[in-house]
Amino acid sequence: MEGFLAATAISFAVIFVAELGDKSQLMAMTFATRFKLVPVLIGITVATAVVHAVSVGIGYGLGATLPTGWISLIAGLAFLAFGAWTLRGDELTDAEKTKAERSTGSAVLAVGGAFFLAELGDKTMLATITLATQHGWFGTWLGSTVGMVAADALAILVGRMLGRHLPEKFIKYGAAALFAIFGIWLIVEAVIQLR
Asked: Residues 49, 135, 127, 158: is their CA dihedral positive or negative?
């Protein structure tokens, strides 16, 4: 049970931070201006659960076949890359923005489909794969899914309250710093294991 709780908590924290300032949050805010909040959150949750299940499957398979020292080293380097990616920032493409603004029909299907496609290959998917190489698959899946949905729900609520006056630089630099800290921690752990 302790491993499950640790995997859930770590995955929640990492993915929540990774999602801050991500294009998915921009999509969530855009969809929330067009549809009611509950269908938007259901679409986000379903898409996230599916994408993160695939990510956890890939990560868990890699974790079972690679030595832990090398996994820690690769994960640490990946987290440093995620930090740099966060500093670079994410923006909605014109096609993604148009899809979010013009979607008709079922809000759950529109939001779910858009989020599923947007998350494939995104840093949160890659971070979930990385986390699953070292932690239990169910805790990683649960924590990463809840972390992403919570971050997107927060973006919708804050976006509605504050409009477009979000402190983007603060969010971007804070998230990048946390990724760097996790990355350095994993690299140090790897060096100790590989001695």
From this structure: positive
Helix axes 168-194, 2-19, angle to 10 degrees: 140
Record the tokens describing residue 166, joined without a space: 């979000």
CB 20 within 8 A of CB 8: no
Instruction: Indicate the pTM of the whole model.
Output: 0.68
DSSP structure class, residue 133 = T
Which residues neighbour 99 within 8 Å (Cβ) at sequence distance 6 or greater? Answer: 110, 114
Q: If you search the block for the tokens 């956890």, which residue do you land on?
A: 56
121-133 pLDDT tens trace: 777 888 888 888 8
* Residue 171, SS3 per DSSP: helix
Q: Report pLDDT digits (tens) over 123-162.
A: 788 888 888 888 888 999 999 999 999 999 988 887 666 6
Tokens of 142: 């649960």
